[in-house]
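Now for my pick.
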Amino acid sequence: MEKRIKLQEGRASEAGNRNVYVDYMKLTAAFLVVAIHISPLSGINENGDFILTRVIARIAVPFFFMVSGYFVLPDSRKHNKRALKFLKKTGLLYLAAIILYLPVNFYTGYFKELKAGTVFKDIFFDGTFYHLWYLPAVILGILICLFLIRITGEKAAFVISVILYLAGLPGDSYYGLTRQFSFLGKIYDGILQVFSYTRNGIFFAPVFLMLGCLIKDGERKEKDDTKRDKANSVMYGLGALIFFLPMLAEGLLLHKYGWQRHDSMYIFLLPLMYFFFIFIVSLYEERRGSGKKRGEGHSQVMGNMAMIIYIIHPMVLILLRGVSKKAGLYRLLVENTLICYFAVSLLSALGAWILLLIYKSFLSAFKKDKRQGRDGKALREQEDQEYGKSQKEWKPDLYRDRAWVEIDLENLKWNVDRIKEILPDGCKFMAVVKADAYGHGSLAVSEFLYKEGIRAFAVATLEEGIYLRENGIRGKILVLGYTCPFNAPCLAKYRLVQTVVDESYAKKLNEQGIPLKVHIGVDTGMHRLGEDYRNREKIADIFHYENLEVEGIYSHLCVSDSREDWAKVYTKKQIERFYGVLDFLQERGFEDLKTHLQSSYGVVNYPRLPVSYARVGIMMYGCLSGYGDETKQALDLKEVLTLKARVALIRSLKKEESVGYGCTFQAPCDMTVAAVTIGYGDGYPRSLSGRKQNVLIHGRRAEVIGRICMDQLMVDITGIDGVAQGDEVILIGRDQNERISAEEVADNAGTITNELLCRLGSRLGRPPA
């Protein structure tokens, strides 16, 4: 059973001795990884913490890779049984780690709307939890090395692995430099859409695996001098120190210029690891030459503990946070990062030691269970086959089961084309798909519009932008709302353009040290988000922040939906203020900015403004915000969304009998009523109760009666012939010659169409992807 825990097991020499110093270093490397994830010196000295966690600790994972290459890859061109055994063990370990973190993934919402592409990327490249990327990386790296060694030989395989590493650098520590070259930046943006990082099993792992392999082969060729003397170990240690210094300088310079997207890959890391690994192995040669073997049993335990600590320490950190909060010790044990580091390290080591003891004690029981399980396997398979024969494959159709929306994408295209017709030359269409595209489904809408040539999208939140990117939406995605500065890495990773809500926010974003593209929000009179238009110097200062690339600038017209005289005056003042800021910036040399000012009503009421984009939301979906709104430019729009439900039950109601909660409706005469399978739990407003709101059944209007419930509502179908259980009911949309618009429903509910559509619930059936 103990063998299943060992990830990087092997023999340190041809005689079968373990290299105790390799095991010691594996344990040290595990604690360095813990430091990377906690930043123990961040509360004491940020520069010191950067040197520890982003430079010194970056030797940890390459060391793990080199250990694997050292023990697994030699002679693999002729014999690959050792490699296959290693891959099997590592695969089982990875599976166990995935299962261990499933509860955390469920808690954090990882599985909400999870797509096949994301699952594939996480399992094979990124890991299903942030630190588990190492396991698929070593598996994929070993497979790549085995393939290269078989077709080219070890030396050529090493050269290819170096090329792969150099190809990965521009997507990691040198990403900011890459972005300064438009063509190269686009290439790596495409690569980083497939892989979240170039620090993976393709670009990162193979070179260190091959280094370990070549070092082992070099030892074997030294048949006349199999033991390195002390002078040799000192020489390699000195070589490691010599190359550490330029790597330190490299890391500090990259950090200063903010070029690092992730800081795992350095140019000088390769020679440093070569000398450092040989130094560690040389210490063992000295030990073996002197006849010292004491402590090798303990070293095996430490070597096995290293990988367990690597896997469990994030779980230990999560548990420490939870327990310390309840005990009132959060500030001491978590916010004090140095104490937090030692606590997590100690608890992780203790947990690893306990797991090893449990592993060993249950070894014999496991083997016994395995034998017994083998005896009953044939019987269980026979029972499963017999059960399977009696079952037919069945797949539920939930889309149109009780209440659902239908989306007409051709109507969406029609609306976009009509709106484009009134846009001035040079003004592009920015599709606003926030709030799940106003309840229409942001992914389906965005995919369709991208195929129709739309290349700019606007969302309200970081999460909405990530959702689109993870599902393959390309083009520009602008986040209109506030994003916490500490999430700057997410903005960069998913290539999202962030709105700068004011100058102080720009400063905080810049301090994150991550290159970002931004649009500046300007408050011209709505007094919501944006830097005050009067603070022109502050707006100009934003252009000088080194980590912010200002692509555009915009404002929002807050009463452009009104045709009243006062609203026209106010809107014109907003327009003048915005262009006044643009003139000021142009005088300062800030030109070629992408500008946008109008939303849907701004487009139809003030259509000829010279801007780069028009941000179109509600009208793109074929609706006006208010029932009966008048606009300067009349558009022939078609509603994209239809809301439907079903008749659940039909019953006769006697005169003066009541319906629903509170008995608020009493039948004025004998009547026929139907229960309909939709309620306020689906987003149909309860405020429509008693408002004489209608639905459509068989092309005729039927009035909603009584109070709308969470899951059902009642309608009067007296005089409508042929209504049957299961018939469709249209709440928004057209049925034959009758139509109930979203504007009508919203107005009757005392709200606007925007709110009505955005509140349509998640349990409504949606068109299948």
User: Anything to note?
Assistant: The longest strand covers residues 641-653. The chain is about 50% helix and 10% strand.
